[in-house]
Design a protein that fits this description.
With 184 residues, the protein is mainly alpha-helical. Helix content is 68%, strand content 0%. It is globular. The model has no long low-confidence stretch (mean pLDDT 92).
Length: 184
């Protein structure tokens, strides 16, 4: 008996969600297909009914995770000028909550050092994410707006990566505050 198309899509979504959770916690390289399938409540044997490779799954999971994240961030940005949007984005992104929380925190700090060696689809997903993010933090009329937006994104990601590496310490809090103050 073959599964219904909606059942197959639901199963695929469960696998992608399980992979996304693993990526957020462990990065791109560590999760195995067996771990992801086990987390989804499935056996490894069913994997190839949904994906042609582990890389395909990781790229799809990362793309879905980053799409969900960018939508949440864009909804929180004020409908103001680009400089104020950058300041507000930094305030939210460079928060203790985003540093410490597991379920919805940005996966980029967990995968940053792995992207260079990852499947090219992963780099494309990450580049598209940063492009969308930078575009949301500038206006076409702003002189040097794209440069300011890209610098803000790079500062935010770098600071959050360092803050997570240091853990919830006073120095980590100081680093987050300094990065927030630098973004204009």
């Amino acid at each position: 008996m073959t599964p219904r198309p909606d059942q197959k899509q639901d199963t695929r979504r469960r696998i992608v969600a399980a992979a996304a959770a693993r990526i957020r916690d462990e990065g791109l390289e560590a999760p195995s297909v067996a771990q992801v399938m086990g987390d989804a409540g499935l056996t490894v044997g069913g994997f190839y009914a949904h994906f042609d490779s582990r890389d395909t799954l990781m790229a799809e999971a990362l793309a879905q995770m980053l799409e969900d994240q960018i939508q949440r961030w864009l909804e929180m940005l004020p409908d103001t000028g680009p400089a104020e949007r950058r300041v507000q984005a930094a305030r939210g992104y460079l928060s203790r909550h985003n540093r410490n929380t597991g379920a919805e925190r940005c996966p980029i700090p967990a995968i940053a050092c792995e992207v260079e060696r990852a499947d090219p689809r992963i780099r494309e997903v990450v580049a598209a994410h940063f492009d969308t993010w930078a575009s949301a933090l500038t206006d076409k009329d702003e002189p040097d707006g794209r440069r300011h937006a890209l610098a803000a994104v790079a500062t935010m990601v770098g600071a959050l990566t360092l803050a997570r590496a240091l853990g919830p310490t006073p120095f980590s809090d100081e680093l987050l505050a300094a990065a927030k103050a630098a973004i204009r």
